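Q: Sequence in, structure out?
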Amino acid sequence: MLIMAEKNLEKDALQSKLVDLKKEQMNQRFAHAAGQLPKTHVIRATRREIARVKTKLNADK
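A: Exactly. Output:
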């Protein structure tokens, strides 16, 4: 999940990716709270990926 793959994405594609990442983040939070998430570092990676997408969206303005 690197930002390099997102350089050529359009605004609509970035918006849909952001929605998907937020849903994934919510599922990860629930799994972590239930003790079912063995790799807790994925929460941090998802949060940073959301920040990358938001940065890209705001840079296009």
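The first helix runs from residue 11 to 33.
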